[in-house]
Specification:
Blueprint (H helix, E strand, L loop, with lengths): L1 E9 L2 E10 L5 E5 L6 H8 L7 E5 L5 E4 L14 H6 L4 H17 L4 H16 L5 H11 L15 H15 L3 E5 L7 H12 L4 E5 L3 H7 L2 E5 L6 E5 L2 H38 L5 H20 L25 E8 L8 E8 L4 E5 L6 H9 L6 E6 L5 E4 L12 H5 L6 H10 L16 H14 L4 E5 L7 H13 L3 E5 L3 H7 L3 E4 L3 H7 L6 E4 L3 H10 L5
Parallel strand pairs: 3-7, 3-8, 5-6, 6-7, 12-16, 12-17, 14-15, 15-16
Antiparallel strand pairs: 1-2, 1-4, 8-9, 10-11, 10-13, 17-18
Length: 552
């Protein structure tokens, strides 16, 4: 892939300014930069969905596979099964029908070179799908991504995390020459992420992956493409994310030292010129040297580099309005199931103490997000009780950002009788929304921008219990760190679902609720015991996932 002199602006907002880069076949490339730098826009340019102002991207003749950050299942696919949806990633039946049609045309026009070329192209594409191993490869991917038990389920019946995994499985099964993956690990549990990492490392094609998951990028990438929101430039670095950060820090240090030396020289020349100008007319030698140095000074000033300004980061402050009771939440004998599905929980019970950090883990589809929705009242349990203690107030950050009204503006989404417009503007500026930005409808925002609005909305509530469902999905590493630091110092209670071990450790988890996988549930044919583990550790979590320990 070769990009030459890319130029793109939205009105007065510059995205790319004369950007060029080259990527080689089978490169595994991490695409990084702060939210809003233009990473997803670059994918849209490659896909032909976004026109450049000037410049071009030259692609090899490979098929493209694309996993968007926000998964939308088309209406025509809502009622098909998981197996049918993933298998459609290799549209063999459709291609064979086209091939038959071309052979019929060839019978009528046997000397047509154009028809022969289309036949050869179609046959090459069908051959690339390896029909002999079609079912085997499909089953392998579904099994490794823990989707085997969903093959007969309709797409419309899946959870958000399950849909994301199924969409990812389809992209991997497509066997495209160029994969574009936008935040692919957002909904992956630890074991599935391990399989995907290994799959992509050995993938016989080029992979471009936008991700804020540093561990994932370090595991699979050999190059890093940095989209700089400040300079609007794009540069490719050799090495994974950690190596990129090392090289970038060295470049910044060298730049700072170089500019400091330039400034020192300019100051010295300026002082000499000032003395020369103040000299008596009789001191012709000093005046002459002053004229010479003035010319040198002008050249130095023209050549002076500008320091790259630091990009603003989210600023947070989380302070509950009042303290909750010692037991802010108690779950008693909770049972729940979706229609035509087995129980997710049967008589689940636990109680939280004030200030606790409570982590809920488990594979996709075992009911993590569902449990949070039951707690906040978006779903009704089949049996059991959810009891809030005195003075308990709750704010809920939903994984798919359902707490936002996409047809309302940013300002309207965070508005509250407790705050004036001036106070709301100040709060939104802490989340990098300035001026007229606050009047944009949420529907036009990027996923990262929507996540910032949602986070601002729940923090403005100043509750003493915060419920977080995958809070780091759409944030860059620096923003994740800021969020983690603030949540660590938060005096209220946190209930969280997260597949981000580094973020979890930063907050300081006190207990971990492990929801058993569906396979464990089926094997026991009775109520699963839900493991409440005192004191989180990454080793414990990885042991549970990777070695299938008998903790539950």
């Amino acid at each position: 892939m070769k990009a030459s002199h890319l130029q793109l602006a939205y009105g007065t907002k510059m995205i790319y300014d004369d950007c060029s880069f080259v990527l080689e076949s089978q490169d595994k490339v991490g695409v990084v930069g702060v939210n809003g730098a233009g990473k997803t826009t670059l994918f849209r340019v490659i896909l032909g969905e976004q026109q450049l102002d000037s410049g071009e991207i030259t692609l090899p003749g490979h098929r493209l596979g694309y996993l968007p950050q926000e998964i939308t299942i088309p209406p025509e696919h809502r009622d098909i099964t998981v197996w049918e949806y993933v298998a459609a990633g290799r549209p063999v039946d459709e291609l064979q029908a086209k091939l038959s049609s071309e052979y019929e045309k060839l019978a009528k026009y046997p000397d047509s070179v154009t028809i022969l070329e289309r036949i050869n192209s179609l046959q090459d594409l069908i051959d690339s799908y390896d029909l002999a191993n079609f079912d085997y490869e499909l089953l392998k991917i579904l099994d490794k991504m823990h989707l085997s038990d969903l093959v007969d389920r309709r797409m419309c019946d899946l959870s958000g995390g399950q849909k994301s995994k199924v969409a990812f499985a389809r992209v991997l099964f497509e066997n495209a020459g160029l994969l574009l993956l936008d935040e692919p690990t957002n909904h992956l549990d630890v074991e599935t992420k391990s399989f995907v990492s290994n799959f992509l490392k050995h993938y016989q094609g080029t992979v471009l992956v936008i991700s804020h998951d540093v561990d994932f990028l370090n595991a699979i990438t050999n190059k890093t493409l940095f989209v700089n929101k400040v300079t609007h430039k794009i540069k490719v670095y050799r090495g994974n994310y950690d190596e990129f950060r090392r090289q970038y820090a060295a470049e910044k240090a060298a730049e700072d030292a170089r500019i400091t030396e330039q400034e020192r020289e300019i100051k010295r020349l300026s002082e000499f010129v000032a003395r020369a100008r103040a000299a008596k007319r009789s001191n012709t030698a000093l005046i002459g040297m002053g004229h010479q140095r003035e010319k040198v000074l002008a050249k130095k000033l023209a050549a002076l580099e500008t320091r790259e300004r630091e990009y603003s980061h989210v600023a947070m402050r989380i302070t509950p309005r009042r303290e909750s009771a010692k037991t802010p939440l108690e779950v008693q004998n909770l049972s729940f199931h979706y229609p035509d599905s087995p129980d997710l929980y049967d008589r689940l019970s636990f109680a939280l103490t004030r200030g606790e950090r409570f982590l809920i883990v488990g594979e996709n589809g075992v009911g993590k997000s569902t449990l949070l929705k039951l707690i906040v009242g978006e779903l009704t349990p089949d049996a059991g009780s959810i009891i809030f203690g005195a003075h308990t107030t709750v704010a809920y950050y939903a994984q798919e950002l359902e707490i936002l009204d996409e047809q309302r503006t940013i300002l309207e989404n965070v508005s509250s009788y407790d705050f004036t417009d001036t106070e709301l503007r100040s709060a939104l500026s802490n989340f990098l929304f300035y001026g007229d930005d606050i009047y944009k409808k949420v529907a036009v925002l990027s996923p990262g921008e929507k996540a910032r609005v949602a986070l601002c909305k729940i923090l403005l509530q100043r509750t003493n219990v915060i419920i977080l469902d995958e809070p780091t999905n759409h944030f860059d590493p620096d923003t994740q760190k800021i969020i983690g630091e603030n949540l660590r110092d938060y005096t209220g209670t946190i209930i969280m679902v997260s597949h981000n071990p580094a973020f979890v450790e930063q907050i300081g988890i006190t207990r971990m609720l492990i929801l058993p996988s569906r396979n464990e549930f089926d094997a026991k044919s009775n109520r699963p015991t839900l493991a409440l583990i005192k004191n989180y550790s990454r080793d414990l979590l990885e042991y549970y996932y990777y070695l299938n320990s008998d903790l539950v």
